[in-house]
Automatic annotation (TrEMBL):
Basic and acidic residues composition bias: residue spans: 221-230
Top-level lineage group: Eukaryota
InterPro entries: CATSPERG, CATSPERG_C
Classification lineage: Eukaryota, Metazoa, Chordata, Craniata, Vertebrata
Name of the featured protein: Cation channel sperm-associated protein subunit gamma
Keyword Membrane found: yes
Amino acid sequence: MQDSGHRGQSMSTFAPGSYVLKVVGGGPTMDTIKEYSEEEIYRFNSPLDKTRSLIWTTKNTTTKDSAFHIMSHNSLGIEWLCLENSPCYDTIPHSIFAPEFYFKVLVSNRGVDKSTYCDYQLTFLLHIHGLPLSAKRAFFILMVSASLFVGLVILYLIFCLLLPCMMKACNVLHWKISNIMASESYTYSTHSNTRVFIRTSGTKSGGGSRGSSRVIPKAVQENKDVPKKP
């Protein structure tokens, strides 16, 4: 209701504190901000533009020639459009944060505020976050995200299905390695026992021969001592 009342007002009855807001420059970073020409300012700000170049819009009233919107303390706010022919269209994010853009904004009350004899013109920078992406880029990001999610789900299902087979194969491999190690240990112990037995037998045989060699000379000596019968 307030909007329709404002639209019916003449230039002389605009609300006190009214002003015109225009985007006169901008860029994706502080270092790339450039000034727009008069034609570009009209295309980027005027509700009469038919080239799909509007940067922003609002439901407030317009000037007498309907070229620009008139803002005031009763304004309903701004909607950032960034249509396909505007400089902020499809701004690509350079980090994990949302797309951003720097606008150079001009605010002036000249010709729209008759409650004061003071004309002012103010220029300031406006930093906007979260600008809308183009339909193609948004669809591409959606498809990539969905593909990654589906791929992770498929990998998880494959892992769950193959896990029992992998566990069985690991158990068989462990059993075979244990058998090989056990057989090698048994062979080594058998060879060790055989070597010990051979060494023990050789030691006993050597001791017996030495004893015989000692006994035989003693018997011969006794035989020599006995006098021979005639």
